[in-house]
Amino acid sequence: MEPAATARVDSWTWAVRLFKTRSQATAACRAGHVRVNGERAKSAQPVRPGDEVRVRAQGFERILIVTRTVSKRVGADVAVTCFLDQTPPPPPREETALVALRDRGAGRPTKRERRDIEKLRGH
Question: Read out DSSP for 10-76?
Fold first, then answer.
């Protein structure tokens, strides 16, 4: 099976398992969460080998270089051969900001608790 020279960006991101459904991939393109070579991508935009695709999903951005175009969904072991992952590693846990968590159903915080929360946030 010879892969096509180009593929739609929504179809390609779905085929290499970046999104669970094709409609999720299309919605991400429509919302501006997918960029091809630095430009905001519409769902029908073609991608070719060598293109840089940036996908913002689940709170972080993935940077991928297309090595092979596919338009049909493939297995996970084949999907990883279709792109080079250039995403930088996430920051260490110590560098991420701590978030004040309250017990569910604890009600509104008291004045003292609000001050402690603000101090924790650095305000």
Answer: HHHHHHTTSSSSHHHHHHHHHHT-EEETTEE--TT-EE-TT-EEEEEETTEEEEEEESS---S---H
Are 12 and 67 spatial neighbours (Cβ–Cβ below 8 Å)?
A: no
- pTM of this structure: 0.71
Q: Is residue 119 part of a domain?
A: no
Can you give the CATH number for the domain in which 68 is found?
Answer: 3.10.290.10
**Vertex 20, ends 16 and 21: CA angle to 5°?**
100
Predicted pLDDT at 48: 93
User: In which residue are the tokens 């905001």 written?
Assistant: 40
Confidence band, pLDDT 50/70/90 cuts, at residue 1: very low
In a domain, 57, yes or no: yes
- Asked if 4 and 37 count as a contact pair (C-beta separation under 8 A), the reply is no
Token duo for residue 33: 């969460």
**pLDDT given at position 59:** 79
The strand pair at 60-66 and 83-85 is best described as antiparallel
